Fold each of these.
Amino acid sequence: MNIILLSLLFFIFAIFTMKYKEKKRKRIFLDVGLFVLFGILTIIYFVASYFTGNGINETVLAALNLGLGEAGFEEYILLILASIASFVILFVAAFFYYRHLDTVVAAKPQKIKAFLHNGFLILAFLAHPSTIDLKNLYQSLTLEQADDFYEYYKIPTTSDLNSSKKNIIFLYGESLERTYFDNELFENLTPNLTQIIKENGIEFTNIVQTSGSNYTIAGITSTQCGIPLFTTSSGNSMEGVDKFYPKATCIGDVLKKDDYFLSFMQGSSTKFSGIDKFYKTHSFDKVQGREELQKKLQNKRYVNGWGLYDDSLLEMVYKEFETLSSSNKHFALFTHTLDTHHPKGHLSNSCSKDLYLDGSNEILNTVKCSDILISKFIKKVQNSKYGANTIIVLTSDHLAMRNTAIDQINESKNRRNLFVVLDPNNKEYKAVDKMGTPFDFSPTVLSFLDIKTDLGLGRNLRENESVYTLFGNFDKKLNQWRNYILSFWQFPKMSDTLSIDFKKMLVNLESSSYKLPVLFRVLDNNVEPYFQFNYAWKLYEQLENFKQNDKFLWVDRCDVMNYIFSTNESGKQCIAEGILGVKYKVKGVDKIKDYKIDNYENNLSVNSSLERIISNIDMLKRNGVEYKATLKDAILFKKEGYPSFLKNIEGVSYPDKLGRWTDAELHPSAIFTFKEPLASKFKLEIVCRAYGENINENRVKIKVGNNIHEFTPQYKSPSKYTFEFDNLEYANTIEIVPPKPFENKEELEGSDTRKFGLFLVSLKIIDMENR
């Protein structure tokens, strides 16, 4: 905070000394532009710090890639409104600053004082934490690569395994960092787990978070494979691959070689961020998430936006523990809780009366609940007839992100990940204070099974020092190894032929499969695949980050590619390949199973500047794809973009498989504004459906000028409703007022918190005046 205050002080000095500069129109515009830039940097810094607590870092990049969807739009509505207000205030201030400079600048400039102005301005930007953070972030992404990675990366020595054959339960507590156990900061928040740990736990007290381990799938990868998660797209979009870090050897691979049965259970969807691909790639026999476990609930509606509550999950995990224990086959059971997910958590019903203090802090209520639920689960396992042969590992997946207790959390000067091993053979509490990272978890856990091995960049902290201690700036070193770590994806080299399966929506390249749509950057030795996640960071936005002359191949919808590349290919699916900003070709491939790849030298006949492509992408981001259509054509809401006869649309979300939901987060009603006035008499056909209590209960209004029709949706499946309108005012707007909005807790993933009213499939206008 001191550095931002220093930067602001320099900037204030620069403002007050501006009047001593020579009065020129261009100079005034430049100063006002720098005023706005400084303001934007300051707003960005405070917004980024709200999430990270540490300014602009790689977590912010991930958030930009994903949008706010993962944590829930409504959770951050106040922040969004405050940000909008800040920008409005900034531009209003810039206007008055311009007026002030235009009228007050001294007629006789003073060179020395003008020099001071320039100096203060430069110091203000140099001292600004956003400038420093962006410089550090750029340097981390563009570091010269080091060639000593394999001096430190170790493949586990699994040829001569001789484990103690104990069973393992590995429990990730969502964001359950060690800070919550600090009784001075959070008095009596975690008494039950603290007691269990202090009785006979082996606690590793100095586990720092590293680059590539700071969100869920990254934490899982780091703790199990001993390397950070580095990806071409955002980490949470890697559900598009068929194999997850296939070149890496992880704890599951080691245990499977020692004949362990491996099971994983979590309350949210395992498809999210490719978690199912991770566990299946690394030898797990059984992977269960929301899709499988919700069916086992007595009350199948007892779920939150993400999935099962922890009281439901841990009951099922215990049953799985009993089943696996009785099978007489050694096993490792991994599970991941959910209730303490930022920003507010999701409180299990069983804890509704066990709130923390006055119950006003929602995330702390869920932490207290986790303390109760997890401790009960641990004791139940320990007291069972199988407890003496079961090692329990309790760990956080990553440090807590921005939540309702972040100010108290940040009071800690020693934020660390939780890592505790409960070994039935250990009879007293032991604290291991060595510095370590999540990479060290797996070799340390394996040591309790008498499997003594390094794993990846991880070391057994019971006997060895962490690789972390060898470097002054470990995150910088990790980024210098970035290319080596990316090689664990084993992305293939571009072949002569691409195999496409549109039924499964897969593209096959060599022995690897990739989920469509997919964008490849084509390199000399391999390809880098890019995927989009929940509509938040689309492929054309990722293409925008490619460099001039980068070779690419892209399989996606033709309407998107036609818009970007100014082509006119028919069909649904197209392939674009070429050299960015030089030449390319776009081809429809609906009926093609095997597509012959160009050699990027011949047959790329279309030339286009990078500037034109970027301009088209910017237009697409603002307006969506406008496809050619006449008023006689129906609006098909499953299509990307909108027909050319529409001027504007409000209150309608992005397309799902069959259509679009109205979204009260965007606007209370769905408003369709046409470019031309509608006929004085027309028929409107709407195909739509409602959900839950809106069926047969709540009415929908359709307004055209002063005319209103109402209807009540009768079925959960889409149905057609027809109405006639007299439009004597020649209005050009149709407003659909949906029934009661709701959050879909049953069909959609937890990263989606739209407020749904009506599901729109199609809307058609039939002119009855000029038939």
Amino acid sequence: MSPKCQIMTKYRYEIILLSVLAGISMWIIDAFLDAAFFYKETFIELLITDIPSYELYIRSMIFAGFIVFGLTISRTLSRRFLSERRLKETEDYLQALYDISPDMIFIHGEDGRLIDVNGNVEMTYGYSRDEMLDLMPEDTMGKGYTFEVALKRIHQALREGYIEFEWMARKRSGEEFPVEVRLKRIELTGKDGSPESAVIALVRDISEHMETELNVIKYTRDLEELIKISREISSTTDLRQIYRTVTDSARVLLDLDCSTLMILSDDRKSLAIKETIGFPGTMIDNFVLLEGQGLSTYVIKHKKPGKVIDFRSETRFEVPPVVFEKDITSAVCVPMMMGEEVFGVLIGHTHDKRDFTVEDISLYRSIANNAAVAIKNSMNLNTLSDSESRNRALLEAIPDMMFRLRRDGTYLDFKKARDIETILPPELFLGKNIRGTMPEEIADKAMSNIEKVFKSGNPQQFDYQLETGGEKRSYEARLAMSGEDEVIAIIRDITEQKRSERELEQYRRHLEKLVRERTDELDKRIGEVEMLNRGMINLLEDIQVSYDRARKMSEELAETNAELEAFAYSVSHDLRAPLRAMQGFAGALLEDYAGKLGEKAQNYAKRIVAAAERMDTLIQDLLVYSRIGRSEIQLTPASLKREIDEVLRESGELIKVKGAHIDVGGRMPEVMCHSSTLRRVVSNLISNAVKFVDEGAAPEVHIWAEDKGEMTRLWVADNGIGIEAVHKERIFRVFERLHGIEAYPGTGIGLAIVKKGVERMGGSAGVESEPGKGSRFWIELVKS
């Protein structure tokens, strides 16, 4: 329905009533005119008198015309009435909008003059409407906005229809504020009724908007800086770098004069400066605050940020003297926390008085939170790295081969041993099962012990033999659980240990034979002594006790053949005691009863003393060999020259007796060694060099050193009897002698001690020799 039809429908009853009233009025007027001018009847009579039909028709037509005329007039009046009413409503509505608009509204003429302003202009600028109309643009706008600039903008808006720009406005008080100006051309009716162009200006105060934008920009900048800081401190584990980055960034972001990071001690009783900007660098790690001193300890205690506006009026805690010495006035401090644990603080100081805002503290706290995570991570990573380094060093120090296996026997990882070669390259057994890479017997034994580990939870051990490099070698495997479904296997080559055990067993048998021989001989001597003097019964009973103790010691050694240390202890204490007793008693016989003993008995007694001395020397050498093999060796740098000089000093008597000439030549570098072990090795080499010479020849010994890559080789050359090539390896074994004891005394253990000692120090030993041309023994040690 059109707007006109809506109006007609809304006021239809009023229009019909007006039309009927108009028709009736015309009827009455017609009767009145007839009575007055045309007919003699009265007005009433004409209204009720019958009228001829044609006249009635004419009157009806006239009456209908009046009705139509009335309706037309009524409709026209209704339209005008409604239009005026709508116009009034529109004007009231626009005026209300004009008056209550949150924007300031200015209306300018084409000539730039100000025609009108709304009420918001008066409230904002502080001028009345009349005062505003008399002002120039430069009175209400900021610097540079003159009348010419205003007129130029108005003409631009008249041409283009609409423009907008930002400017600075000025209130009556002189305060300036940013505004957004929108100019739009409008058409007004002039005083003479002609159209007149004008410009309406909508001016909006954008102070809050710009402040919001500035806050957003600042927030964005701070966020970018926080992200940058977080990246920098998360990309390193260097605590000093983290401390420096955090303190420097905090100083810049919060515009601080001093920025300091402090860490709580392990006992949580003091705070130490770890980094500072603005305070002397000497305070780092040296300046400490105790509980109750300074804002930092206050923040630690309460686990929340704190600030000081003026230290001169601070009463919550004791102010450190350095604050006043550095002319500090204000401070802000935030805790660095991980969960509920405080482990440090960030504290900033300013020389000027400053009340730090909530936003400042929030930003500072964000920096502290990021720093806390980075510092703790760095500490944990450093601890983990140290632990890994220690574990790696321990693993590297272990000479054994190590495997990591699953419960089903699959190889997961392995560590190579220094002296053990795998039967397959790692790429051929890693990821595969032990049953497919080892002989069936060994694989079954390994899997059985793996199951025992998981069932008992205790480590397991087993031995096996495997042929590698054409030689059957013995190995010891130790298994331990390393996870819910994993075990660690440590493999040690015990071939040499087994060989040593066999040699030890051989020595024990040899020792038992010696004891038996000496026992038989002693029995004979006891019989002879009984025949000579019954007074020797008590002495012989003591000798028998010593004999029994020696036999008991031999039985104990046979029972504990796998325990070298126990053997060494027994040799050191139990075996040497009866030998000393035998030696002592035999010596007492010679000293106290020589006149009562025949020449043969004296000879027997002397032989007992000599045999006991030889056995004691042999035992002492064995103990030395045992200690070198099992004692802990700590290698340290040492001078070869100093060690050789000390050996020569200690061996001076032997050298003098043998008439030997010792020549030490050339440079003697420093080596990694165990000092006492190295001296014993060199002493044995010099002893051999001066001992094994032709009868009547003066020993000539030459000692020098040379570089061998990462090793240093020390030579000891002599003019002795020499060694056949087939015996070069044999002489380094225990109890191996190439000559009879009558010709060249000794135990046959000296060179074995040399080889064992050098190997314990990470080196090796050898000899170059020809019979009759002397020998050149050498040892190699790691350079210092």
Amino acid sequence: MSANRRKMLYIYSISFCFIKINSFDASICFVDFNRYKIYNLQEIIYIEEDIMDQFAQRFGIECSPKADEKQVIVCGNTRFTVIAPCLLRVEVQSEGKFCDEPTQSVWFRDFCEAEYEISQSKNTVEIKTEKVTFVYSLKSQKMLRIKLGDGRTVTNFKAGNLKGTCRTLDITAGIITLNDGVCSKGGVAVLDDSKTLVLKSDGSILPRDNKEKDEYYFAYGNDYIGATTDLYKLTGKVPLIPRYALSNWWSRYKAYTQEEYLSLMDRFKAEEVPITVATVDMDWHWVDIKKKFGKDSHKISKHKNFMEYVYDFWSVGWTGYSFNTDLFPDPEGFIKKLKDDNYHVTFNIHPSMGVRWFENQYKEMCEAMGQNPAEKKPVAFDITDKKFTEKYFDILHRPFEKMGVDFWWIDWQQGTKTNVPGLDPLWALNHYHFLDNAKDNHRPLILSRFCGAGSQRYPLGFSGDTTQTWKSLDFQPGFTATASNIAYPWWSHDIGGHCMGKKDDELYLRWVQLGVFSPVMRLHSTNNEFAGKEPWNYSGPVERTAKDALRLRHKLLPYIYTMNYRTHTECRAICEPMYYAYPEDKNAYECKNEFFFGTELIVAPITQHTSLKTNLAGVKVWIPKGRYTDIFTGRIYSGNQVVEMFRDIETIPVLAKEGAIIPMSANDRTNDCSNPETLELLVYRGNNTFTLYEDDGETLSYKSGEYLKTAFTVAESGNKVSFIISKSEGDSGVVPAERNYIVKLKDLVDGNITVTVNGSKIDAEIVKDNTVEVRVTASPEATVEITAENCRCLENADKKQALTNVISKFQMSTDRKGMIYNSFIKNGRSVPNVSKDFKGPITEIMKLHR
């Protein structure tokens, strides 16, 4: 036993009370002999603290919480840390005992050497970096003003905050108040870290020894990307999400039988709708425990808070760890069948009630925790107890993981208190579950609610039980993108809405269309028999369109997974607000539901009912400078304008930027989510490079270099367009030995096409049908070049034809349609004198032909 793993203790009494001899301070501690190995050496014993050491190894974190001393300035009971040129930490502690430990939010304070100058006069300190000047009053212990690099002087640090996110959207219907983020139109935002707890080296979470003020001033002006990038650096980057989690999920709160659930998955397969994650809600375990085990079976030993009392009284079966064998007579066979059919599996848990006597694991938990199982006293849930935490995973969860459960949906709703003052059990559950899930080279994942700054370290986010209303749908696009402001990129919503509301086929479809271009696509609903989100539960046109949308999500996996890698390495969310790229344009702030979906696309979901007069629904879209093409309609828009775009139920506006390259899988009918053998590339003329990222999608082997990058480049010069697939770099073993490429030059109609592989011309398959499509097969080691000369480019449909197409959808007499059409032809550019419902779609057509 090595010296650093021993603790010398002098025997003080037979009651297991000892005096620490070799500690920095003498103190009393109580030792349970069942937890340690005892070595008798006369009056001194050596106790190997296996529990503490194992816990630290298991739940320790990689962090760099102590800043370089060169970046630290101490003025009495105030300490300043220049973390970055635009980021200053300010601590006030009356005894001068400052915090250099990681907190729940902040793990990294040593990531930048920022030069600065300091001057002090009386009670004022001025710290000047290359970009910002901070002026602080030691007397009032307040930041007085901050002068930004753009010349502005800011004194109100709350004004203009662009907000961040919130814990949950449970039972909300529309707009709710969000917490602050680190982006502000005012130029400065403050992250208050004063109330967070600290993470000790042994893996435990405890209150600070000395806490008063601990604030971080983000003085980035309108450089929102800079602000959020440094927030990621400060609090921790986002792990790489498993590939399977980025396709379609099935989830429903319903007491399925084993046969029903498996039959449903078979139905999805038969309908050729790819589902990659099978979610099993709480009814996998015993729920009606009074009926099954008697009226006293549900009691827990002590309610920590009122919410726990409410849930104990209202839903006594929420917590459970034993399969309901009435519903699942063969649990192992059930999970094996899902795994054999290529589904990844997650189970829902509500752990607040601990482990009760009827659970299969009760006896083992009692023995581990030193309780007598004969007493039938519940083993209390206590995530602050190291021993309980380890046994919680080892005894209660590991057996299911060995069966095939990939990760856990932590559905915590039972209050915010634990035995450690200030520790929210949600935070502890997210933290420990995510760390525990990273074992055996397994890429970790959880699904749980947001628990404050730093939550991006524990993806994915579950936004709670949303209501099935248009107001809820309308709030979600902006809510998702705005979460970028607090570095929270992976929200997962209940697509279609969870509960309440009423059946509305169009609402369901618009939600599914949003889900395709959301971080996570998870269908979900409550246990009402008529609330299911299966596409075949809806009318014919909606069913067909919803199925196509789900297939499109699966096809987009190569693009979305590359954006996942970008989030992991570059700290950029897949859904970002428009003002990130255009902070100086007021329009970027006003189209709140419009957002970037990765590097290549702008999405503007439709969140309003279709007009009964036109069969169209509209959404205002701000188009930045450049040329943008709708990937569904093919309409080409010039930038620097706001256009109200109208669509029927089949599409929403999704705009590809000039030079966009969108890699897609050719597979949209099965749930195979491996790197595809056939890759479709949607290419729009312009000048751009897109680098595809691929690895095995599930393990941590990418950290050892087992990944591949392939650069695609489009270039346009005059009437010549070229597209190059460069030789891949990295480990080609993660992709097929040869790959079929289907290159779709979406806005080229014709041209003289030549194709070379490694410089040699080949006879490739070329299809021209209103676009140019080239098919070629090559290995990852090859370079493919496609050149189109004397190009004829796609243009918007003739104005007359476009107007005819739009007016044809209007629900009015054909004579009236003819009058509108003739008025347009006669007056040219002016909009016919028609009501608002009809004017909007016509105006869009006119803007296309300016």
Amino acid sequence: MWVLSRLQRRTGGKRGNTAGTIARWAGLLLAATVSMPCVTLAQQAPATTGSGASGVTASVSVNAPNIAWFYGDKPPVAQLRAFDAVVVEPDHGFDPSQFKTPKTQWYAYVSVGEVTPQRSWYKDLPKTWLLGRNEAWASRVVDQTQPEWPAFYVEHVIKPLWDKGYRGFFLDTLDSYQLVAKDDASRAAQEAGMVRVIRAIKARYPDAKLIFNRGFEILPQVHDQAYAVAFESLYRGWDQGAKQYKEVSDADRAWLMGQVRKIRDEYHLPVIAIDYCPPADRACARDTAKRIKAQGVVPYVTDPDLSTIGVGRIEVLPRKVLILQDRDPRTTIDTSEGVRFVATPLNFLGYDVEYADINKTLPASVPPDRYAGVVVWVNTSPIKQVAALSSWVRQRIHDGVRIAFLNQFGLPVDGSMADMFKLQLVRGRANGPLSVVSQDRMMGFEMAPQPERREAQPIKVSANGQSLLRLKSGNFEFDAAAITDWGGYVLNPYAVFSMDTVEQARWVVQPIEFLRRALALPDMPIPDVTSENGRRLMLVHVDGDGFASRAEFPGPEYSGEVLLQDVWEKYRIPTTLSVIEGEVGASGLYPKLTPRLEAIARQMFALPYVELGTHTYSHPFDWSRTVPGAAGDRAKEGPGADKGGGDTAFALSIPGYKFSLDREISGSINYINERLAPPGKRVKILQWSGDCQPPEIAVRMTWDAGVLNLNGGDTTITRSSPSWTEIAPLGIDKGPGAYQVFAPNQNENVYTNDWTGPFYGFDRLIETLQLTDTPYRFKPINIYYHMYSGTKLASLKALKKVYDYALAQPVFPIYSTEYVAKVLDFRSMAIAREVGDDNTWVVRGDGDLRELRWMARGTPRMADARGVVGYDKAAGGIYIHLDDGAARFTLAPEAESAKPAYIAEAAAFVRNFARNGNALSFEAGGYYKPFVRLANAGACRVKVNGNPAGTARAQDNTVRVDLTGAAAQTVTYQRIDVVC
């Protein structure tokens, strides 16, 4: 009876290939224990007060590991990387070597005491080693006393996982032997065998980190082999038999806390409690984690299937937003409203965007641990699949995923919809002109609401909602926009107003504020791709169009020569240049010019501050026609060439060429690498041509070819079209492995009316640069143009004007590929806050994006910050500078009493930052006029490479240190030591 009670109290481990719960024994033994009187372990342990606190007041060390468990088949690496270690189910095929997560280790779940036939090593296991069955989990209990068992386990279980890259193991079923061992001697023999297994693992792999799932009986013998000990259900458990959540009794908790004290105080091991809450109830997980942490135990609260991102010492914030939209099948996703209008404000708020078509199969799962919300943009209401959408929306609301509707609901406005959305149906209709009854400050952002009675919907928010725009016609009143307890809505035409006569649009609602409130987005440090170390980034990239064109004024003959002499040799900053092979190469349009053109190309590619790009082979203008059926009627024609040429053509009409995506991408890359690239340089990026709307397969092929991609997006905001609708997002996810990165700004073709004039029009880019910097910094500075800008004096003069303006700003020039890497890092960066301390944050990224934007009160507390080199104010908030993309810091609402020195600004990359009391040391280097400005350093001594630095001291207690540096393919770093 004693054994049955202990097994019931113990919550064992995951079985087989299921994504099941760790807690399993309660359901297995429920029938056996319900009717049998027994002495429980809790009765053997000293009783405590009803609080179950066991007198423990210890806190969890800040250095204790953050460990997560995730047994789903597709671990969300982007979010889980916030943890120090993650236990996964290796039989789902997860390969840790495929992911760049230097701060996160991946541990494999392994069962020691039992095996299921589905495990790969089961077939090699001598069946005489199997002692009994666990019918509930269809598993067999392994005899731990077999002399060859330890070596077998290491060779067949641990070694294959170690070879795959796993460096830690979660040892489960450490007391399954109790199912078959019925006396003390048998139990002791089984325990001794298990001890031999654990020691064999560490003998073969001394660096392996082992987490025990309980194993309390053998810990006295092997605690020195353990990295940590885990157990389940300190406060909230899961009853597998009854399929329900259960509160843990005070007596059970007291017994567990007795084990905790021994492990923590005698063995000095981290102890993790794994508790369970419904996956949609993040408040439950958060509260339970706080309670566990208060006991001095590392918490991890998740769902019973361990298939969601749980709450541990940290809570990872979801950074995905799903945009559900009805898209015209004759168009590409690039021109959809979700991409054109909604994605940009979401990117600015720190969210990566995914897209789904409302007229197709709706996403089956939108879990709240990964998605911050859903935005629905519908142009036609009701849509075709009303029942499917209604059911889908209802499930999202049930799961706690907030939804924002823009333009239309997509559902009939009737009683059932009103009930689902907790809205009031109002009687009547708008028979006359509409007037504004009330209007929130976020309405009338770029233009005042233009009431349209034909769009009136008979709904009002209930008492738990907030009207943003209430309109009336006679006695008929309705809410055209509102915030609700499930999200919010802005109906047509009060979201984006289309000004068709001038081909422009305006936001009527302030989109950033609306989305923030409707989706209840929390304040968080926002990954920012526009800046680094407080300076606005600047990148230059040039498409190869017109490389064969002749200049229309005396001097160099070809456009490339003009730009080489007048621009690239003058402005020695990081620059990305490309050519179109079909324009330059011998197999292209101008084979007789090839020797001359290739010579110019080699000369420009040899410049030390130039990186290489390709602009394809034949310059497709209409990418939808590169893949039959890719986008509507235009694609039905399939690949071909319009002999007329120009932007209406499919591609350059190259004699004898049969279109091939592989030739366009890999072929042009190989041509440049083999014919034009200087030693030590290779093509790094493909710059999309034509309409810059490549299909998914083409984007994926660039990644498969080992190059980045850039172009697309239409950021053309100017004084004559001053709308955020003219600011493109960071890029567009076109499918798995097919993310297209947009150019931050548009090229001179747009500013010169498709190169029809005025040819000085590119100087209006300056307006765009200004409007994307204030009041919010949406974009870095991007000077993006074509080779044909070198053919006309007016265009060349405008280009130089733009360069001069940009370099007169506080910029930090970088390569285009470095910007693309930041965008990719933006998508996968993990942002987490510490449980119980909403002001302390943990950030994990790839190290390419090294700037965060904080838009609320407070500044980083530098004295105890890790991975933060400094901060400064700039457009849109406080910009926090990171060392290598991983950081832990507290945002203090009040200024620090002690004021340690830190980096306020730097036109340089910073690495290896270290603080030792009042001293700083780091390395810095940049491509163009690099410098570092130190705050609180007026009385400090500064050395560069061991020598006293020449510094400029300002009245605000800052010190500027100028460094040497020049644009090249690599950065030259200099060591800086600061003693205060």
